[in-house]
Write a structure and sequence with these properties.
Number of strands of chain A: 37
CATH class of the largest domain in chain A: Alpha Beta
Oligomer: heterodimer
Number of domains of chain A: 6
GO cellular component, one term (chain B): cytoplasm
Protein name (chain B): Dihydroorotate dehydrogenase
GO biological process, one term (chain B): 'de novo' pyrimidine nucleobase biosynthetic process
Shape of chain B: globular
Mean pLDDT of chain A: 95
Helix content of chain A: 25-40%
Number of helices of chain A: 42
Pfam family, one (chain B): DHO_dh
Strand content of chain A: 15-25%
Strand content of chain B: 15-25%
Structural class of chain B: alpha/beta
Largest interface: A-B, 68 and 40 residues
Distance between the termini of chain B: 40 Å
Strand order of the largest sheet of chain A: 1-8-17-18-16-19-20-21-22
CATH topology of the largest domain in chain A: Rossmann fold
Pathway (chain B): Pyrimidine metabolism; UMP biosynthesis via de novo pathway
Structural class of chain A: alpha/beta
């Protein structure tokens, strides 16, 4: 049979096999496994049947715990069911995994293996998650490549049905889940030949069925539990054999023969590495290379890790082996060694005892850790491990790939050692996020993989920020299957798709001698040479690089492509690289365009065609002199004024040299200094706002809406203007509170993202020229130097005394310094203005618990973090625990502060004789409602600390340890709707019910934004989202109403873009309310499919249509006999659809299912009306005595 | 009984009252009611060039926005297999209108450039449209565009559409031509089956709160029909295309005058939006009554009877009338 090849990533390979051999798929989004669920959902929506001809059903649950529960239920009633997950998601499944395995239920969980959060979160790959499941009773099958993922997903499904042991099929997150490779697609006939229908029927026969009732899941007791638990043993004894049986059957169907342990290398090797996962492919490549060079080494790839077959393992090894290195991609602190190492040692000991194999003596076994959190693992490191084995006394327990200069466990290796063949094309492509570079490269791989005999590989490295990000595509093509599962570092082709990268990244470091460098440049071949930095010139000359330029911006502009240079740069690549004959390549690109964009309309296709056609004429090779002539030098990574930690640590990560940081540079517990974004000047705005004071009305709206704290206002005494730069602008302050003072609006030119929201919000228009506002966008580059100086001057002016500010006005609130600045959120983000407002109002005494999601990523992703400090060094203290537990986590903060307040007061009373009665009484009785009162308490606590500074009594020391908590703390619990409405709702509900003083801010984007827009229970009816491709059929959950049901929770719904004053009031009231508070904040989002410049306008429309009701529910009013609910919205001005159909999330359904869209829109419109009417009535309910009197 | 039958661009109509391209045709139910009220044909609301092109661009931009930039969210929307941008919804509407009605259904294409959108006329024909009304809504604001080319634009668009379809094509025009008569002649030669006179340009307005220019829909008034009256009367008998009058027809008298000037069809919109579709009967009955009162037997008899060619004072349609009008004050 002719083989069918496809170019896909690991997630698609797993989902393909899993989807076709199951019928119920319950999922929950988590990186990097989400695409498996999304693909399954898309196939199900499109009616793709499984191998039995029926369409599997996909259901999104509220958490991975929920998904595993649903799977367990589906399995128990006889369905074939699967799920996909990663990391902490897998941990949430563990309770059910014990149950599923305990009940001998056949199923497979497919895992894109990801680092477990420990001292920090990481979305990248290692085996710490799967290794945490070792005792569940699941079998573990490891795939090392995309092809193996497709193969093993099927083998696991076949084996589980026969063995009745459930399987955990895993592959490395990102490195395999997201790597694109050309693989053979297994046919459905092969699948049918692998899956025994009789076993499926047996599984169904074991199902819960009232026609043949049984009971399962009983409670058992000491006299019988144990024996029952032992009854499963024979299934585990048989399991390995069954897996091999199906591997053999598979080999008969396709041309790939796998074993439980696959050995490769010299048949009489003396040194052997044992490992599993994608790193084994790099090791395979290294072993082949080394043996070709006359060495004598080997590799065992562990396929079936559990149940571990000692016999199969020992027999896979050559009897000549003298030393073994076992490599684990996980860390188990405190253990004798990492899991695979311990098992291998044990296997050798057991084999020796039982006489299995022909080893006379147990080899010398050492164990090492590699590749945690997708740390690169290369053939150079493999060579380093083999070299270590050659040593007389190799390290027993080591790490490889890092420099451990603290415990000296790392082994050394030669980073220049390379096994890459000459016959493999290797290219790296630097693109700007969303400029289409990655998409074009994926297309190139498909073209080469599917149009030629070549094998193709693509891996894509993304930034950790969401705006102005760099993407690096690593591509390989060659005649042989590609095992190089590591980044390209000796490139034959380097492409820079964005001119601005020249000053930021050392791209030519990747290039080998004679490589090609393709640069998207606004300068032509004759003028380019002196426009590039000296460092780049040096590399070009030294490496004899062939240098090409194209003005892709111009071609894109002419052909209507806007900022997307993808098609143009892709065409250049094919034109220069000669991977395919030129005409053939151009036709293939056009075919790919048609395939990719056909559904988007003819205009899009034609536009791309035009770009292809105009590219070649604009591509030039540069003839350059053999000497460095440029006067341009790359700027320093961070300012010289940055703290030492930032210069020595943060800057290295920014510069892309994080891999070289030694262990000693790291905090031991994941605790870092705050306020570091200020040192990373990203300069991503093409245009920045320029202030015209002549028409400014000092409303503060520009500052309150700025998502990046990049435009600020300040009020100050005129004396501070002394020495101001010539272009620094100021005006007289308008208002009595600072009469005679000056006022400035200042942009942070290098931190602004150019989102335009400030200009959109600015209400002040010129009388002479309506389009001219008090803020107007102008190109950044000509203003950069001047405004950098102005901003530095602005920052140096002292912040106004908080006690003097009317913080209950928008204008006043914006005179407070933001303690959340320059985050890596999307340009124009709808969430961050709320976080910034919080930081201004309460940041100097706030402790924030942040649920995992967008807000934890822009809030706490290295290298630089946005929470910062005021002039006194105070600012928000921030931590992310998990996704699901955030309410409880923040609640714990409250418990501590309440306890420490209590304990502190007890000690103050005890030490009153030292402190003085007045001070002691002042501290204990302090009312800390206003800024003045908080200030006074801080003064008192400072006095206390001074008085006790030299006191060494136990009580004094204990009091000093908790004295800070005598000043009121503001506890904030932040997260998105995925957390608050779904995975964290149980905990949130409990915390709200507690009555304790916590403040919950829900940044409601109505989807799981951070993982790519999956439906949550906050998603409104009729909106399209992932897992709701046909539009969400159910209405949005009313979280606010549910909280109001407790009647002692302060609840507010706000939308800054609609009513900033109401939003401010809600924040102040929520914080002041002495019980639990919940603020639900409308956050426009890129996942809504809007022009982000219009984000504020959409917020306004959401409110004006009656969809997003602004309200405040203040339980304090009940005591006054008033209705606690105040509606702050006016009557709806226009129908819901007028708001909704501006957004792609609603609009796209009219394109895919017009009839369905109409029905859902009708229902959604009705939801809006009903909710509006309900809230209207609710707000008129009579409360208190007044009510009871009338009722009598 | 008077005979109201007329022929409009080769389509036999039971009377001259056609529903013009407007929101009136958005719902099939409304169309059915209009047919029951005796409307003789319907022009479906316009499929705009912008709808076809710009919607594609906008949707494309929004779907691509932020993609492949950040590792946890490589995209933000699902991509359903059957997701199609383009005029499918409009085509479906034409199809449904055709199924629901027995009167002719005329599709309306509204654009101003020679481009891919013209190809959709073929799809409209396939969807069952009996004719196409092409509305070249063009405001030549460029200071650089050659004035002679502005006129050519209309001819080129018509020629392109005529090449694509075999059903009749009407050109809906604005009155702002240097020589209306000559343009009409050119369009006739290029194959126009009818001229629809005139397009109303919705003029912008200034919002005094926002200090911003905003669109503001103002319904037509009876007076506006006079412009069509002048030009239909002038062109009648010289240009072989059919004529439809549109814009400002609010009373039976307005309609009667236009038929007398030479209109084959009377397109109604504002009057029905303002008074409700039932008002159709008032207009219809008014014409019948007038015909009876004046003892006209048929619309054909009336048609063009007071055109420039047939009226007693041809100068009344020309410059001389200006002076007369002033003197009449």
């Amino acid at each position: 049979m002719k083989k069918h090849y496809v170019t896909i990533d690991g997630n698609e390979a797993a989902a393909y096999s899993a989807y076709h051999t199951n019928e119920i798929i319950a999922i929950y989004p988590i990186t990097p496994s989400s695409p498996m669920g999304e693909l399954s959902d898309a196939w199900s929506a499109a009616g793709v049947p499984n191998i039995w001809g029926t369409v599997p059903r996909v259901i999104e649950m509220q958490s991975e715990g929920g998904a595993s529960g649903a799977v367990h239920g589906a399995l128990s009633t006889g369905a074939l069911s699967t799920t996909f997950t990663s990391s902490q998601g897998l941990l949430l499944m563990i309770p059910n995994m014990f149950k599923i395995a305990g009940e001998l239920t056949p199923m497979v969980i497919h895992i894109a293996a990801r680092t477990l959060a420990t001292h920090c979160l990481s979305i990248f790959g290692d085996h710490s998650d799967v290794m945490a499941c070792r005792s569940t009773g699941y079998a573990f099958l490891a795939s090392n490549s995309i092809q193996e993922v497709m193969d093993f997903a099927l083998i696991a499904q076949a084996a589980t049905l026969k063995s009745r042991v459930p399987f955990l099929h895993f592959f490395d997150g990102f490195r395999i889940s997201h790597e694109v490779q050309k693989v053979e697609q297994v046919s459905l006939d092969v699948m049918r030949a692998m899956i025994d229908d009789e076993l499926v029927r047996q599984h169904r026969a074991r199902a819960l069925n009232p026609d043949r009732p049984v009971i399962r899941g009983t409670a058992q007791n000491p006299d019988h539990f144990f024996q029952g638990r032992e009854s499963i043993n024979k299934y585990y004894f048989a399991c390995a054999g069954i897996v091999q049986e199906y591997m053999n059957r598979y080999a008969g169907l396709v041309d790939r023969h796998y074993h439980l342990f696959d050995y490769t290398g010299s048949p009489d090797a003396e040194r052997v590495i044992i490992m599993m996962g994608s790193g084994a492919e790099a090791a395979h490549e290294a072993v082949d290379f080394m043996n070709n060079k006359g060495e004598n080494v080997g590799l065992v790839k562990v396929r079936l890790y559990r149940p571990f077959s000692i016999e199969h393992f020992i027999k896979s090894l050559p009897p000549t082996v003298k030393s073994v290195a076992v490599l684990d991609r996980t860390k188990e602190p405190g253990a004798i060694g990492e899991p695979l190492y311990v098992d291998v040692v044990n296997a050798f000991v057991e084999a020796q005892k039982e006489g299995i194999g022909s080893f006379k003596k147990i080899p010398n076994i050492i164990g090492g850790r590699y590749g945690l959190s997708s740390k690169e693992f290369t053939p150079a490191m493999v060579k380093g491990v083999f070299d270590e084995l050659n040593k007389e006394k190799p390290k027993k327990s080591f790490s490889v790939g890092i420099n451990d200069d603290v415990t000296y466990l790392s082994i050394s290796y030669d980073p220049d050692y390379s096994t890459e063949g000459e016959d493999v094309f290797r290219g790296v492509f630097f693109g700007l996020g969303a400029d289409g570079t990655v998409g074009a490269n994926k297309n190139s791989i498909k073209i080469i993989g599917e149009e030629t005999e070549n094998y193709a590989q693509g891996y894509f490295v993304y930034d950790s920020r969401k705006a102005g990000t760099v993407t690096v595509s690593h591509l390989r093509f060659g005649k042989q299957p590609i095992r190089s599962i590591y980044l390209v570092n000796k490139a034959k082709f380097v492409a820079c798709h964005q001119w601005v990268f020249l000053e930021k990244y050392d791209m030519l470091d990747y290039a080998i001698e004679g490589a090609i460098f393709l640069l998207n440049s606004p300068y032509g071949p004759d003028e380019i040479w002196d426009k590039i930095p000296r460092e780049v010139q040096e590399q070009i000359i030294k490496k004899k690089i062939r240098f090409f330029v194209i003005d892709a911006y111009e071609v894109a502009k002419k052909t209507g492509m806007g900022a997307r240079v993808n098609t143009i740069m892709q065409t250049c690549f094919f034109a220069i690289s000669n991977v395919l004959p030129k005409d053939e390549a151009i036709q293939a690109i056009k075919d790919a365009i048609k395939k990719t964009y056909g559904g988007r309309g003819d205009k899009i296709v034609q536009m791309n065609y035009a770009a292809v056609e105009q590219t070649v004429a604009n591509l030039f090779e540069v003839k350059y002199p053999n000497k460095v002539t440029s006067t341009i030098k790359k700027p320093p990574i961070v300012s010289e004024e940055a703290p030492e930690f930032v210069k020595g640590f943060t800057a290295e990560i920014i510069a892309g040299r994080g891999d070289l940081l030694p262990v000693s540079k790291f905090p031991v517990d994941g605790t870092f200094p705050t306020a570091t974004t200020q040192w990373e000047k990203r300069n991503i705005a093409l245009e920045i706002p320029v202030w015209d004071p002549s028409i400014c009305i000092q409303c503060g709206k520009c500052a309150i809406v700025c998502p990046h704290a990049a435009i600020r206002t300040k009020v100050y005494e005129p004396k501070y203007l002394e020495g101001a730069p010539a272009t620094f602008l100021s005006m007289d302050y308008k208002g009595n509170e600072f009469s005679g003072w000056k006022y400035s609006v200042q942009v942070a030119p290098e931190d602004c993202t150019g989102c335009v929201l400030c200009v959109e919000a600015c209400p002040a228009k010129s009388k002479e020229e309506a389009k001219h506002k008090s803020l107007n966008m102008q190109p950044q580059i000509p203003l950069r130097e001047q405004e950098r100086e102005n901003y530095a001057f602005f920052l140096a002016i002292p912040d106004v005394d908080r006690r003097l500010v009317r913080i209950n006005t928008v204008k006043g609130s914006q005179l407070l310094r933001p303690l959340f600045e320059y985050s890596g959120a999307c340009s124009g983000c709808g969430e961050t203005p709320y976080v910034k407002l919080l930081s201004q109002l309460f940041g100097d005494r706030a402790v924030i618990g942040n649920a995992t999601g967008c807000s934890s990523i822009y809030g706490g992703n290295l290298p630089t973090t946005p929470y910062c400090q005021d002039a006194n060094g105070r600012g928000p203290a921030w931590c992310n625990s998990l996704f699901e537990d955030n309410a409880e986590f923040g609640f714990g903060f409250r418990l501590t502060f309440d306890k420490h307040m209590e304990y502190g007061k007890e000690l103050v009373k005890k030490l009153a004789h030292i402190l003085g009665d007045e001070l002691a009484k002042g501290i204990v009785k302090a009312d800390q409602t206003t800024e003045e009162e908080i200030y006074a308490q801080r003064e008192r606590v400072a006095e206390l600390q001074k008085k006790l500074a030299d006191n060494t009594s136990k009580d004094a020391l204990n009091l000093l340890a908790v004295a800070d908590a005598l000043v009121k703390r503001s506890v904030w619990i932040l997260g998105g709707d995925g957390w608050a409405y779904d995975i964290g709702y149980g905990g949130l509900d409990h915390v709200l019910a507690s009555g304790r003083d916590v403040n919950v801010l829900v940044l409601d984007t109505e989807v799981y934004s951070n993982t790519g827009g999956q439906m949550s229970k906050a998603t409104p009816r009729a909106a399209v989202a992932k897992f709701a491709a046909s539009g969400k059929p159910a209405p949005k959950k009313d979280l606010g109403l549910m909280a109001m049901a407790y009647s002692n929770v302060y609840v507010a719904q706000v939308a800054l873009g609609s009513n900033d004053a109401q939003c401010l009031r809600a924040f102040l009231e929520a914080e002041a309310y002495p019980g639990p508070s919940l603020i639900i904040a409308y956050s426009h989002c890129i996942a809504h499919g809007i022009n982000m410049i219009r984000g504020l306008d959409q917020q306004k429309k959401a409110v004006d249509s009656g969809y997003w009701i602004l309200y405040r529910y203040n339980p304090a009013l009940i005591e006054k006999g008033e209705c606690p609910l105040k509606i702050d919205s006016k009557d709806p001005k226009f129908p819901f659809e007028e708001y909704a159909y501006y957004e792609t999330r609603y609009q796209m359904l009219t394109k895919s299912d017009p009839e369905g869209a109409k029905l859902l829109m009708k229902a959604a419109t009705n939801d809006v009306k009903m909710r509006w009417n309900f809230y209207q009535q609710f707000s008129k309910i009579r409360y208190g005595n007044d009510c009871s009197k009338k009722d009598k | 009984m008077v005979d109201l039958k007329t022929t409009y661009m080769g389509l036999p109509l039971k009377n001259p009252f056609v529903i013009s391209a407007s929101p009136l045709s958005e719902k099939i139910d409304t169309l059915r009611k209009l047919e029951d009220l005796n409307a003789s044909a319907v022009v479906i609301y316009s499929l705009f060039e912008e709808q076809i092109i710009h919607e594609q661009l906008t949707m494309h931009a929004r779907l691509e926005q932020g993609t492949e930039a950040y590792s946890e969210s490589l995209s933000y929307f699902p991509m359903p297999e059957n997701f199609r941008l383009g005029p499918e919804e409009y085509l479906e509407h034409v199809r449904k209108a055709k199924e629901a009605l027995s009167i002719p259904v005329i599709a309306s294409l509204n654009g101003y450039t020679l481009g891919g959108w013209i190809e959709y006329s073929q799809k409209l024909e396939n969807a069952g449209a009996d004719a196409i009304e092409c509305n070249v809504y063009y405001i030549p604001t460029s200071f650089d565009e050659d004035e002679n080319k502005i006129q050519s634009r209309y001819i080129e668009i018509l020629t392109a559409i005529k090449k694509t379809v075999s059903i009749p094509v009407a050109m809906k025009l604005s009155p702002y031509f240097t020589s209306m008569s000559r343009v009409a002649k050119h369009l006739e030669h290029a194959g126009a089956d009818a001229l629809v006179l005139f397009n109303r340009f919705y003029q912008p307005d200034i919002d005094l709160d926002d200090m911003a220019v905003k669109p503001h829909l103002v319904l037509s008034t009876s007076f506006e029909s006079r412009l069509a009256l002048r030009w239909i009367a002038i062109l009648y008998g010289h240009i072989k295309t059919s004529f439809a009058a549109t814009g400002g027809i609010h009373t039976s008298e307005d309609a009667i005058k236009l038929i007398l000037a030479g209109a084959d069809a009377i397109q109604l919109c504002s009057v029905l939006l303002k008074n409700g579709i039932e008002y159709f009967t008032t207009l219809y009955d008014g014409v019948v009554k007038w015909m009876k009162d004046k003892e006209y037997e048929s619309v054909n008899q009336m048609k063009g009877s007071v055109s420039q060619k047939t009226c007693a004072d041809p100068s009344a349609f020309e410059r001389a009338n200006y002076m007369k009008t002033l003197l009449s004050i």
